[in-house]
């Protein structure tokens, strides 16, 4: 069966949202690093309610968590594309995967910094 694009504004957008939800579910249920990061995100949500963090702290926590999960999703997509194009080890493919992994590291470091700024003062006053 041939793919046919839905050009209708409403049904086309609904189908797009459906596919993005399916993609997010696949990412969370199949990728171990995302499973870990998603679990940490859940723990941070619980911690946010427990420590009654401010609106601004919620915004920073949500942005930091979303950044890590989004970059990890892009990293996974890059790795899957690389594996599809060149299943055997290749130096240039390894270089590309390393760069994508480095992007995740930068996002994770920024996210950790946000978490420390939010929770260290609260733990010190606990």
From TrEMBL:
The active site is at 72 (proton acceptor). Its EC number is 2.7.1.-. Mn(2+), Zn(2+), Cd(2+) and Co(2+) support activity to lesser extents. InterPro entries: DAGK (IPR000829), DAGK_sf (IPR036945), UDPK (IPR033717). The keyword Nucleotidyltransferase does not apply. One of its GO terms (molecular function) is ATP binding. ATP binds at residues 19, 31, 79, 88-90, 97-98. Its main location: membrane. Substrate binds at residue 72. This is Diacylglycerol kinase family protein.
């Amino acid at each position: 069966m041939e793919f046919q694009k839905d050009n209708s504004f409403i049904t086309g957008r609904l189908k797009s949202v459906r596919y993005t939800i399916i993609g997010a579910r696949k990412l969370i249920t199949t990728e171990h690093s995302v499973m870990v990061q998603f679990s940490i995100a859940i723990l941070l949500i619980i911690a946010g309610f427990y420590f009654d963090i401010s609106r601004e702290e919620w915004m920073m926590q949500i942005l930091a968590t979303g950044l890590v999960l989004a970059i990890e999703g892009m990293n996974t997509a890059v790795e899957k594309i690389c594996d599809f194009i060149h299943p055997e080890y290749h130096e240039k493919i390894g270089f590309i995967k390393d760069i994508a992994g480095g992007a995740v590291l930068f996002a994770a470091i920024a996210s950790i910094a946000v978490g420390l700024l939010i929770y260290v003062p609260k733990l010190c006053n606990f």
